Amino acid sequence: MNPRVGYQLSFFVFGTVGLLHGVTEYVYEGQTVGLLTIFGGGFVIALTGYNTVRPESYDSPEKWGTLVYLTVIGSLLFAMSVSVKSV
């Protein structure tokens, strides 16, 4: 996998999980902080989509390094923590 793809995919996963978690918090628990999570997740997804369509507009890693590894691992840990909290 290309490091740029892995980098963008990790942000997409982070935004999607955040958005879905915010929806469940707002709908099922009635917490207004869920709205902030929804907007934050939507913003991350929109930014990722823009950067995917226009790759020349941002500077992303060209090779696998610490930044890419930490981004991917952080995204996976966030997704796992949200899924464990939801159960």
General description of the model:
With 87 residues, this protein is mainly alpha-helical. It is built from three helices and no strands. It is 79% helix and 0% strand. The model has no long low-confidence stretch (mean pLDDT 89). The chain has one domain (3-86). The chain crosses the membrane at residues 6-28, 35-52, 64-84. Keywords: Membrane, Transmembrane, Transmembrane helix.
Tally the beta strands.
Answer: 0
What are the low-pLDDT stretches, counting only 5+ consecutive residues below 50? none
Shape: flat
Beta fraction:
under 5%
How many alpha or pi helices?
3
Helix and strand composition category: mainly alpha
On the 0 to 100 scale, the average pLDDT is 89
What about the largest sheet? none
Computed Rg? 14 Å
Number of domains: 1
- Rounded to the nearest angstrom, the distance between the terminal CA atoms is 32 Å
Helix content: over 70%
List SSEs in N-to-C order. HHH
Keywords: Membrane, Transmembrane, Transmembrane helix
Question: Notable features of this structure?
Answer:
87 residues, mainly alpha, transmembrane helix
Short description:
Keywords: Membrane, Transmembrane, Transmembrane helix. The protein is mostly helical. Helix content is 79%, strand content 0%.
Summarize the topology.
Elements: H1 3-29, H2 33-53, H3 66-86
Helix pairs in contact: 1-2, 1-3
Transmembrane segments: 6-28, 35-52, 64-84
Keywords: Membrane, Transmembrane, Transmembrane helix
